[in-house]
C-alpha cells in the first residue's frame, strides 16, 4: 500500500502515477493535483495543436466528464465533437439553429452521448450524438437570445438555461411541453419582475456539491445564488407581479443571496443609475465553496461563500491603551509613550526576506512601476501575512495606480493593517483618504475626527489639515451633483430587489490585467482541482493565468487574432482548450523545449493597455450589439 504522503519515488513518472490513482484511491487527490498544476507543467505550457473545422467564431467549449472529448459550438451553427488527443473531429452536427451558438453542455450520466445547445435564435436543443443529426428535444420558450446552459452532476434529465429575456428555465427532457407563454411550466426565475423590463440573464451555474444552489449573472454587477428548493416553476409570466411573485406566491426573501464588490454596490438608495457593468460568466469551484465571477468592464472576482461578509467601509478596531513604555525609535529624549495593546507587530523588525521584498516594492513604487510594486507586496504577503506595513504600502500603490476598484482595494488593505496594528497612524490616515475618494465624505470625516481623537498631536498636521479641507469641499460638491443628477438615467428598484442588494456580500480575491469590454460571453475558470490558478481570455487576443494565492499574473499567452472568449481547463490533466474570434480551437499543454513562441513577454505593457481600454471604452450594451463578433 502506498502512503499518499510519501510517493516521491514514483511521482515523476506519469504512467506510474496514473496507475496509482486507479489502484489506490487514497492518493487520487494528491496525484490529480500533481499532474495538473505542478509548476514544472505550468512553466512548460505551450500551444500543442490547432483544431480546424468550424467556419465561424467558436463561442463555446465543453469537456466531457471523463475528459476524453471536447464539444464546441460556433457561429456556423455546427455542434462539433472532438478527440483533442488524436487531433480529430469525431462528429459535426449541422443544427437547425439560425443564430450564433453560445453554449454547449454534456448531460451527465448518459455516457457523454447527450449534448444540449443554446443560441441567439432563442432556442435550446438537445442532441444524441449516437442517433442522428436531428434534435431529440427542442425548447423555444425564451423571448430573446439564450446565453448559457447549466447542468448538475446528480441530474441526468433536468438542465437549465439563461436568456436575455431575463428568464431562467428549468427543462426536463423527459417531459414534452408546448412553448406558448400561456402554458409555460418551465419558467423558474424571471428577473424582469423585480429589477426592470430590461433585465437580462447572461450566465448560469449549478453548485457541483450542493446542487440546489443556482448562480445567475445578469446585465448588472450582482451575482445571485438561489436556493431552487424554494422556487416553483411558474405556469405563466402573468402571475409574476412586481414584488417578486412565483406561481402566485411571494418568493421568500431568504431564497437568494447577492454578491457584489463593495465599491460597486450602491445600497443606500432605491433610486439608482442604470448600471453599465454586466457579469459575462460565473462558475463554482469543484468543492462548491467559492464563486468566480468575470465582470464586463471590470475585473474577475472570487467570493468565499462560507465566509463572505457585507462590505466594511469604516469599522475601526477598538483602541485600548496599555502601560506606558519607551520606544527605541523615539528621539534622544526617550520620554514615556503610551502604546495601545494592539500595536506590537508594527514595532517588531521584519524578517530579512520580507524586508527585502518591502524594499524592492518601495523602490518600484517610487519609480511609478505600480503593477510590479503591488505584485511584490502581494508576494511578500503570501509568504507572511502578519506585517501591516506590507498592506499599507500596497494600499499606497493602489491609490496611485487608480485602476477600477483600486481605491476600494486600498481601503481593504488599510483595514487589514489596522486590524494588525490599531495605532498605525499612516493606515488610519490613508483609510480616511480612501473613503473620500470612494465618494463617502461623511465617513471620511468621521474617520479623520477619530484619528485626531486618538492622536491629538496630529490635529495640526499639514496632511490632516489638507484632507479635512478636501472633505468639506467634497461634501458640498457631492450634494450639488446629486441634485443635478436626480432625473438622469434613473432606475427605481422594487422593495425586494433593494433588500437583496443591501445585503450583498463582498469579494474575497480580485484578479486584474485582462480586458473584458467587447463580448459578453467571456469566461473565467479555475485551473487545477484545488483551484491553484485562475484563467480567462481577453479582448487583446491573449489568455491570462493568475496565481490564485497571490492574485499575481503568472503568465500570458497569445491565443487569437482578436479576442479570446473561452479558456476551458481539462478536468484532470494539465491541458486547456481556448477559442474566440478565430474559426478554430487551440489546445495547450506542457511541451518540451526551451522556446515559448506564444508566451507574451511584455506583460506589463499589455496589462496597462487593457486597463486604458476599459476606461476609455465603457461596457456599453448598445455598442456591443453592433459588433459582428458580439457574444
Automatic annotation (TrEMBL):
GO cellular component terms, A-Z: Cul4-RING E3 ubiquitin ligase complex; cytoplasm
Signal peptide: none
Keywords in alphabetical order: Repeat, TPR repeat, WD repeat
Record keyword tRNA processing present: no
UniProt repeat feature WD, residue ranges: 51-83, 557-589
A Pfam family the protein falls into: TPR_2
Top-rank taxon, per record: Eukaryota
GO biological process: negative regulation of fatty acid biosynthetic process
InterPro entries: DCAF8, TPR-like_helical_dom_sf, TPR_2, TPR_rpt, WD40/YVTN_repeat-like_dom_sf, WD40_repeat_dom_sf, WD40_rpt
The keyword Glycosyltransferase is assigned to this record: no
Name of the protein in question: WD and tetratricopeptide repeats protein 1 isoform X2
